[in-house]
Amino acid sequence: MKPKAWKKLEKAQAEWPQWVASMTGKLGAQVNSNDGTIVMLEDAAVQVFEKKAKVAAVDNS
User: Fold this and answer.
1) How far is CA 21 from the centre of its chain?
2) CA separation (Å) from 2 to 7, 45, 59?
3) pTM
4) Which helix H or strand E contains 5, and what residues bound it?
């Protein structure tokens, strides 16, 4: 992951109480590790969004 994308994740973690990220890229090779098989993501891009709490609707009936 490029440093700029990593900084987006760090900034979201520091500034927003809740956030969600979307990662896109080209699926690459499978690599075995101690934790199992990992699929590499080539040309990864990250979008980070603040997750805002839903406001309960008020029913004035």
Assistant:
1) 2
2) 9, 8, 48
3) 0.60
4) helix 3-15
